[in-house]
Amino acid sequence: MSERYDAVVIGAGPNGLAAAALLAKRGRKTMVVERREMVGGLAASEEFHPGYRTSGVLHDTSGLRPWVVAALELDKHGLVRRPDPPPVLVPQREGPGLVLWRDPQRAAEELAALSPGAPERYADYRAFVARLDPVFQRLTAGPPPDLFDPGAAGLLSLGRPAFALRRLGRRRFAEVLRVMPTCVADWLGERFESELLKAALAAPAIWSTYTGPRSAGSTTNLLLAETTAGTPVAGGARGLVAALERAAAAHGVEILTSSPVDQLRVRDGRVVGVRLGSGERIEAPAVLASCDPKRLFLRHLPPELLTHRLGRDVANLRTRGTAAKIDLALSAYPEFACRPGLVAESIRTGESLEEQERAFDAVKYRRFSERPILDVQVPTVEASGPTSELAPTGHHVFSILVHFAPYRLDVDGAAGSDPAADPERGWSEEQRERLYQAVMRVLAGYAPGIEGLVVGRRVLTPRDFESQYGVTGGHLHHGEHAIDQLLVRPTPETARYRTPYPGLYLCGSGSHPGGGLTCAPGVLGARAALAG
Amino acid sequence: MSRRYDAVVVGGGHNGLICAAYLARAGRKVLVVERRHLLGGSAVTEELYPGFKFSVCSYVVSLFRPSIIRDLELPRHGMEILPLETAFTPLPGDRGLCRWADAERSRREISRFSARDAEIYPEFSLTMTRAAQLVRDVIDSPAPDPLSWDPRELLRLLRLGRKLRSGGSETMHLNLKLLTMSAVDFLDMWFESDVLKAPMSVSGIIGTYQGVRSPGTAYVLLHHYMGEIDGAFRSWGYSKGGTGGVSLACARAAEGFGAEIRTEATVERVQLRNGRATGVVLAGGEEIEARTVVSSCDPRLTFFGLVGEEHLDPEFTAQIQRYKLRGSSGKVNLAVDRLPRFFGREGSAHLRGDVAIAPGIDYLERAFDDAKYGAFSRRPYINVVIPSIMDPSVAPPGKHIISMFVQYAPYHLAEGAESWPDQREAFGDAVVETLAEYCPGLEESILFRQVLTPWDLEQEYGLTEGNIFQGELSLEQLLFQRPAAGWSRYRTPVRSLWMCGSGTHPGGGIMGAPGQLAAAALLRSGEL
Q1: The model's pTM
Q2: How many Å apart are CA A20 and CA B251, to the nearest integer?
Q3: Rounded Cα–Cα distance for residues B350 and B102 (Å)
Q4: CB burial class (10 A; 0-12, 13-18, 19+) of residue B107?
């Protein structure tokens, strides 16, 4: 290709599209190259059974940052945010279950039935989170503080968040410092009595992590999830991707699908473009990578350029995928025995912290949970918007993130084998079927007869995330959300989107503030490139 | 008694005695009162079986502050530390892995399991030794308090921050990882062999309610490298004559400076007048007056047992209620008539240190899983020491003491803590059976067995919930938050009542730092 671009973005997932849209909006001639035949990455809506489409592997759009929407003017490109988050159904096998609203007033009636003091305690919890909200929003709305710069600028970038936290008042500041290293089981245990409620609140802290509710530091994940949650995008992940695509197109971004990158092109130490798998070369003075850091530095960078330090730090990133995805095509909405007639859009299974902890235990021994905990979204419930195109009228799609399922699966206690080296081992068809059956057992325990409604399915394991979506280790966040990997993400030399290679920038979930459909790393990475 | 003391110290464990010694050394009139008939608290030697002197609870000395040894002239008072020379990990049916003071010998042993690990091992030790400097800085001074607006505190924070940053980004990144990662994840960055990683990882879980894969456990790895700074292979050692020897030396030092010590004197409560501590009341009604009371008991016992909730404000009460003490370990002590024999190893050279029953990461993690759900580990991690090899004075000739620290034995059993007496022997059996898998014939050599569960540690030694460190050593209970935010400087909300036990900064283990730092704070306060 003879045309020159100002920037090439690797990967057309939400972060890649957001980065490209911002670059183009600022007048940079931008090209996006995508391995897959479609855009959207882990948020892509795909037909998995004739007439049924998924709502992305990642299906929660409530983390999309308002300042991203503003920066890209996504509302002008069709993005609509729903006024409220839908309530979550936490079903019980014996007992009425819980329908949990975020708004404490709407939640009060259900909570009162759980335990007498629960509504006040929940209101108190929400009030605490609401006070932290602006501080955490601010912390994740810009580049991370520079821990390593010994100069005044570095000190200032550290001082600012510290000062913001202190301004919460002594008691709240003390509480934040105290609880962040703790586990959610202990912290929620101090605040609530009901096991069902504790489990419902703890769930987002452990999804897609290598932690159970008793793992230290899980409270940090909970606070991050709670304080950055807004309301979902109308149409879910599909609606988000559509708006990003329109914004990109409006500013003239070109997107090349079915075009995997083979290697970065480097001249005199500067990254000057990419070479595609087809051999085609694309020249650009700036390359922004939304793929995960391991893939970028260990596969796409010419190996002779990788320094010892960066190579070691990147190899040390913990990217153990722990979630699987199952999409179900259903001929009707199943009936939950604890709530006859209820049509819930969001369902969380896991009736107690112990059930969650036991589900996590499995993955430590490289097995999947026999009784996994499920994060279910039913995008077809949403009344209006493009989700109605996901299934025939009256039919439904269950979008299920399954926790926990390891990347390296040991079968019959055999030692962990590298699935890349030994594809026959581990996640065989038989094991995939067993995982599916385990999920169906959990669902059928709450909604008897659901098996009879299934007309189609898609089962994706962490290994499939790697082979189909290109995420190393099958990790949906491009790296675990653990305190060390949140504060310095992904490595000290690359924590602020720049890399030791001039012209190369990071703009994916492997960078601050991390994974999920936030589009924040995309915009922040693009800003770094624009400034550079 | 009409005599009035400057300070009465509650509890004659090593921290209480050290605190008393420093106060007496500064010319203050000090009394130590101990509930039991002998001194030492958990650092105690008892002849439980004729001729066998057991270090009943605490069995190795770790990180004991060299400055205390100097200041109190402890060697003159009979303290002698015999450094541990080996770290042996037996395996069933295999000669296992023994690490020695001799680096080349260790390399050969490790290379049986992984040549790569054997090469990296010295580099790892060097890196950790450098990082351990930081720990030393932290445990030798009071913790800076980020909650305070006092400019002096801000200055301390800045100074600590500068020190942290002075090592450059690589060191800082390492420190960040050490503070927050799990021991296993941290070791995974370096090593591949399970047989090497498992015994190394356990240092992160001793006395905690965490597993080796629990985040936040990596930091304690550093403790094992502290000794390198003082030029020893390991910073851990036996006290000659048993652990009680440390306490007795501290007691003699204290008495040498003029402190009085009373045993079999149970403190019933702290006497309060107008919200100020004015002494203690003993069981039987005797009142001892003092200008200050210094408690070496754990915070829960101090405030809810000796002071009483009604004298505390609700916020502080809530803080102490939240303070986590869940004991997770037990002790099994054996008197045996011969040395245990491990597979493929003759003699006793490999036993001149500690023996870790930690054959793999999954094994350790499963042991923790049992505890999480309220049971003692069916196959526990055991830290075995045979002090009679290096110190023949503790057992009759040819006979030996096997001291086993066992994890996990959770205080809160699913059936309730009070069911421990019914499960005690089953727990002891599980421990002996486990060890016997590594040294067949062990059972026949046993002359005497003592089993201490967390329940027993609470009943006999006054450790709430049987926690050997007087509170979990987790990040939210360390530094300026030990035992509670705003109260990490040995002072308490009760005027003239001070703390000096392991429940204060820098925490548990036989290091003596809390007693030393508390005495310094009290002397500086002007209250005496």
Answers
A1: 0.95
A2: 72
A3: 12
A4: middle
Tens-place pLDDT, residues A219-278 = 999 999 999 899 999 999 999 999 999 999 999 999 999 999 999 999 999 999 999 999
Count of all residues that appear for chain A in the document: 532
Q: Which residues of B touch A498 (CB under 8 A)?
A: none
pLDDT at residue A269 in the model? 93
In Å, how far are A158, A488, B159, B161 from A153, measured between CA atoms? 9, 17, 18, 15
The identity of residue A240, as a single letter, is: L
B227 pLDDT band (50/70/90 cuts)? low
Cα distance between residue A100 and residue A500, in whole Å: 47
> Which DSSP helix (H) or strand (E) runs through A310?
helix A308-315
DSSP string for residues in A445-489:
HHSTTGGGGEEEEEEE-HHHHHHHH--GGG-TTSS---HHHHHS-
Contact (Cβ atoms closer than 8 angstroms) between residue A242 and residue A21: no
For A312, the closest chain B residue by CA position comes to: B189
Of A170, A180, A488, the CB nearest to B173: A488
Query: Would an 8 Å CB–CB cutoff place B181 in contact with chain A?
Result: yes
With CB atoms and an 8 Å threshold, state whether B324 touches A354: no
Residue A142, CB-side half-sphere exposure with 13 Å CA sphere: 9
Q: Return the closest-CA partner of residue A290 out of A332, A246, A255.
A: A255
* Cα Rg, chain B, nearest whole Å: 22
Q: How long, in residues, is chain B? A: 528
Q: Measured between alpha carbons, how far apart are the two ends of chain A, in Å?
A: 25
Chain B window 308-347: which residues touch A at a Cβ cutoff of 8 Å?
Answer: 322, 324
Please give the DSSP secondary-structure letter assigned to residue B152. Answer: H
Report yes or no: A65 and A50 within 8 Å, Cβ to Cβ: no
| DSSP three-state, residue A212 | coil
- Calculate the alpha carbon distances from B265 to B34, B36, B56, B268, B503 in Å: 5, 7, 21, 9, 22
Tell me what percent of chain B is helix, strand and coil, each rounded to the nearest 5. 40, 20, 40
DSSP symbol at B404: E
What pLDDT digit, counting tens, does each position of B180-210 carry? 999 999 999 999 999 999 999 998 898 889 9
Residue B98 CA: distances (Å) to CA of B67, B105, B353: 32, 9, 10
DSSP count for chain A of H helices, then E strands: 17, 17
Instruction: Say how far residue A78 (Cα) sits from the centre of its chain.
Output: 22
The percent of residues in chain B predicted with pLDDT above 90, rounded, is 80
Amino acid at B477: Q
What is the SS3 assignment for B316-381?
A: HHHHHHHCCCCCCEEEEEEEECCCCCCCCCCCCHHHCCEEEECCCHHHHHHHHHHHHCCCCCCCCE
Residue where the block lists tokens 């390593």: A148
